[in-house]
Design a protein that fits this description.
single chain; alpha/beta; Nucleotidyltransferase, domain 5; 5-stranded mixed sheet; 11 helices; globular; binds 5'-O-[(R)-(carboxyoxy)(hydroxy)phosphoryl]adenosine; binds zinc ion
Length: 330
């Protein structure tokens, strides 16, 4: 019986393959991350990312197939990220998927990476109660969305400039904490006091975000106060992010009847963000869903799971790259 999807993800700095069944159960998931390759550059270096995907894609696929221990004739379709992402890395996954589809005689579906993220909380046993408001906060994206059920996604808001992860990484670099900046900035923040009034752009306006002003304010502060306490700067920056996210989530939950608030993406690992949103959810009587970190960051199981949504909706986007997809696109 062909009841498995092979998912492939290569949009940024993770090469990943996974096999997922109709129920969303993960039979195997292999992932090679490139953090160490990009660390010296303080961000993802696209050409090096492409080369690493070329080197890793076939071994990663072999690993996932061996781990699942299933023969390819169980595979119903190949789902592969078609965007948004870096063009070189995307092409590696898309061409590999096209070859597999041709060889196995199965359809290849081009999956919107953002849909994958928004479905990721249904992986690994932590099922979401719908309708749900979803906050995606990663290095590449900052998005608020509403899902009445897994197939219907409505975009509520998005960043107009930097993502939250980018802001963390840039502030991490200013404070000499290396890349990625999220975890060390959070750690340093715990040792400091939130006593610097950094701006909270667009706090009182809708559900969009803007973070470049906050990042510039931190940079200007460090220039004007050469003896600043880095711990206090980190604490004040994290507090501004926490306030922004908490206010936007509250507004989204008040405006859209939700059983759950789901937070996905690498930044969801932040303890400060976790505790602020837990408090908010307790107050509003909403369930907080934080998927395990493995499924909250880029992975192929979320792409495979989203592929089922396409099949059920009878939507088969061609596996061609699209670096500018938005959530309203399937
Ligand atoms: O989803 P992700 O792993 O990768 C992509 O964006 O593709 O997100 C990475 C981002 C980085 O910007 C990193 O600094 C941030 O997530 N991050 C965190 C934490 N852990 C990772 N940000 C804040 N607090 C953390 N504990
Ligand atoms: Zn992603």
């Amino acid at each position: 019986m062909r009841n498995l999807i092979l998912g492939i993800e290569s949009s940024c700095d993770d090469t990943a393959a996974a096999l997922v069944d109709t129920e969303g159960t993960i039979l195997a998931a292999a992932n090679v991350t490139q953090t160490e390759i990009h660390r010296p550059y303080g961000g993802v270096y696209p050409e090096l990312a492409s080369r690493a995907h070329v080197a890793e894609i076939l071994p990663t696929l072999d690993k996932a197939l061996a781990e699942a221990g299933v023969s390819p004739d169980r595979i119903r379709a190949v789902g592969v990220t078609r965007g948004p992402g870096l063009i070189g890395p995307l092409l590696v996954g898309l061409n590999t998927a096209a070859g597999l589809g041709l060889g196995w005689g199965v359809p290849v579906i081009g999956v919107n990476h953002l849909r994958g993220h928004l479905r990721s909380a249904d992986l690994g046993g932590s099922r979401v109660k719908y309708p749900a408001t979803i906050l995606l906060v990663s290095g590449g994206h900052t998005i608020l969305a509403y899902m009445e059920d897994p197939r219907f996604i409505r975009l509520l808001g998005a960043t107009r400039d930097d993502s939250v992860g980018e802001a963390y990484d840039k502030v991490g670099r200013m404070l000499g904490l290396g890349y990625p900046g999220g975890p060390p900035v959070d750690r340093l923040a715990k040792a400091g006091e939130s006593c610097i009034q950094f701006p909270r752009p667009m706090l009182n306006k809708g559900l969009d975000f803007s973070l470049s002003g906050l990042k510039s304010a931190v940079s200007r502060y460090l220039e004007s106060e050469p003896n600043a306490s880095y711990a206090n700067v980190a604490a004040s920056f994290v507090q501004a992010i926490v306030d922004l996210l908490a206010v936007k989530c509250r507004r989204a939950l008040m405006e859209n009847r939700s059983a759950s608030l789901v937070i996905v993406g690498g930044v969801a690992a932040s303890p400060q963000i976790r505790s602020a949103t837990a408090k908010l959810c307790a107050e509003l009587g909403v369930r907080l869903c934080l998927p395990p970190e493995r499924w909250a960051t880029d992975n192929a199981a979320m792409i495979a799971l989203a592929t089922w949504d396409y099949i059920r909706a009878n939507v088969h986007p061609r596996p061609v790259p699209n670096v500018r997809l938005s959530l309203v696109d399937y």
